[in-house]
Amino acid sequence: MARYIGPVCRQCRREGAKLYLKGDRCYSDKCAFSKRGYAPGQHGQGQARKKVSEYGLQLREKQKTRRVYGILERQFRAYFDKAERQKGIAGENLLVLLERRLDNVVFRMGFAGSRTQARQLVRHGHFLVNGRRVDIPSYLVKPGDLIVVAEASKESPLIKEIAENAGHKTVAAWLEVSAQDMSGKVLRYPTREEIDTPIQEHLIVELYSR
Fold it and tell me: Which residue of 13, 52, 155, 207 has the fewest C-beta atoms within 10 A of its own C-beta?
């Protein structure tokens, strides 16, 4: 399955929840989900009245999580298998792994307006991790990692604008950010309580355990 390239607001409407795929725009009056919260398509409004099975709920939760983090099916399953092998609760381990992705951390630090934009900036080599250029969005950060905007990228008008806005955004407690230096540090792994993504991870565990 190829990566979805259509209107991202349709994904929020399909899942029946705001996934904040457009960043700040999702908090404004321009958000399409606020105007049309029903499912897309000719019979979208009627679908809200359908009863969803237990399997359907589990599947939708998995799809919603994939869409939030922008991950394809095979890669998502690999994350789940890795989370299941780790000590602790599989669902929580899965969310921590997803939060550790470099594109997500760049977004969490405020250096991108959305995860989609963060993924693009990482791919274009705008960020260094511990002094080395990393252009792999799925790179998993660890405590102590220092993420810095590449020196050559600091003159980019887009990067300058993003850095200015970063100083006004709330940063997760497990991260430390210096908007002035255009840098951030991973202090530790996030706890489940610190992950504000609206996901019921136990449904995903139930789905893969069938």
Answer: 155
